[in-house]
Amino acid sequence: MSFRTPSGSYLVIETTNQCSLACVHCAVSEGADHPHNHGVGFIAPALFQQILDQLVAIGARFDTLIPFWLGEPLIHPEFGTLYRAGLRAAAEAGLFRRVELHTNATHLGRDRLRIALNASPVEQTWHFSLDCATRERYLRVKGRDLFESVESNLHAFLDETRRTGARWPRPVFQMIVGENNADEVDAFAARWTAACEARKRPVRLAAQVVPPGEDAVVFFRQLDAPTSVAQARANIAFRAAMSRLGLALPKPEASPEAVNGGPGVCSSFWKSPVIGWDGRVTTCVRDNRFENVLGSVVDTPFPELWWGERMRRGRAGAASGCYDGFAACHDCYIPRSSNYTDITEAEIAACA
Asked: Which of 156, 153, 134 is nearest to 20 (CA)?
């Protein structure tokens, strides 16, 4: 059995599906109506460690660990235990090259700052999911009036980073751009560029892809909408806003959605397994209803689920654009979205 993963692979482990906000573009905002929210909980640190140990034991490698999915990871009462376990697996066993966290910064208090700021040899990036430049818009998009608290937390983060000289984490001030906030991209760019420059922190703007480096990034990401029609509108808003900022888009500007063709080859089957806080495993972060569930790491070792017979058959089908047996894939057009992670025929062959 091959345990190879191609370049750009990432393992998503959800620390919790509980969140302090209810962003309109997230399933959390649907409350109990969404199956992902039927039960709320935290991954057990022992289970988190067990997953890492199983992967280390077989010599697996992923490019990135992402301890996040739908919930706010800093809410986990033992977040520090989880985060440091990921760093150890990366630094001591080479399981990951880097660790990437996504947080809304509502719980970025002094205790979490002590966990965040470090001099580990492992590359670390924290995406601060902000999405707005004004308090009024923040409330409308994020669902709660925590704008000033979040900004205060992030200014403290920048101040403490400068004071301690901590190398990590690299801050990415992120705005997911859609029709409901595209008019604020200029103000967002100015706000966080100024915050970094005031503290002598190198910073740059980027769209679609976070560039390599250790400088701060004010980052604009295209919204993934629920339908192809809504996606087309979101794409227009995003591209117009990026043009206004003078930002180049690394991926083609021509509309890539699947309305222009078939589903294509989805890289998720090779690059991005997802483990929910309760141990269920699926093929893709967009399958937040667990329609493609492979099983649970509570009952079956993760390597058996991800590299087992069902996924071998699934990868063979996905390589030709066939997703029989994977319900979440049947009407998905994301393989042709600009947020999609590419995979080449050579990468597929190398993992066979």
From this structure: 153
Instruction: With CA atoms as reference, report the closest residue to 252 among 348, 343, 340, 185.
Output: 340
Sheet (strand 216-222) strand order = 203-207, 216-222, 170-177, 123-129, 96-103, 62-66, 10-13, 274-275, 280-282, 295-296
- Give the pLDDT confidence score for residue 94 in this predicted structure: 96
Confidence band, pLDDT 50/70/90 cuts, at residue 260: very low
pLDDT tens-place string over residues 314-336: 999 999 888 999 999 887 766 55
- Condensed to tens digits (0 to 9), the pLDDT of residues 96-136 reads 999 999 999 999 999 999 999 999 999 999 999 999 999 99
Give 142-196 pLDDT, tens digit per residue. 999 999 999 999 999 999 999 999 999 999 999 999 999 999 999 999 999 999 9
